[in-house]
Amino acid sequence: MKKLEFVKLYKFILLSCSTLWRKIQQNLQGVWQPGSFLKTIRGLEQAFHLGLLHDISIFFTKTVLTLFSVMILWSAKPSDLVFAEELPATSPENLGFPNWQGEDYAPVISPDGKILVFQSERPGASGGHDFWYTINKNFRDRL
């Protein structure tokens, strides 16, 4: 690649990134509406660490009381895939595996829904709030 072509490409990339960054800043500085309670999902009352996947699923942490309280990962789908107060409520689902005997929390899902990253106190790492991940074996491209 000639130096002049490289310089033009570099300037184009810088300009594109700058424009994108300005648009992101404008959106973040916009006027936010007041918060609304998600009535469409039963069981979100004491949930935390919410993560959203393409308006299709919400992944969250909730404490479950057994012999002792444990934080585990859950997911839920808003009715009709939108957030609206007049829609019937849905029930959250325990994710099952990857939950462990210890506490699993702070789920973050990849934009394509294939990888779930979360924190856990399970054995096998450094013993603290370690990051773990799991891959969706039933993943199908949603595009």
Could you describe the 3D structure shown?
The chain has 143 residues and is α+β, with helices and mostly antiparallel strands. It has 2 domains: 1-32; 48-135, no CATH class. The chain is built from 1 helix and 7 strands; from the N terminus they run αβββββββ. The protein has one helix at 3-28, and strands at residues 48-53, 57-65, 69-76, 93-94, 104-109, 115-120, 130-135. The chain has a 4-stranded antiparallel β-sheet, with no helix packed on it. The two termini are 35 Å apart.
The share of residues in extended strands comes to 25-35%
Structural category is: alpha+beta
Mean pLDDT: 62
Question: Can you tell me the residue ranges where pLDDT is under 50 for at least 5 consecutive residues?
Answer: none
SSE blueprint and pairings:
Layout (H helix, E strand, L loop, with lengths): L2 H26 L19 E6 L3 E9 L3 E8 L16 E2 L9 E6 L5 E6 L9 E6 L8
Antiparallel strand pairs: 1-2, 2-3, 3-4, 5-6, 6-7
Kindly summarize this structure in a few lines.
With 143 residues, the protein is of the alpha+beta class.
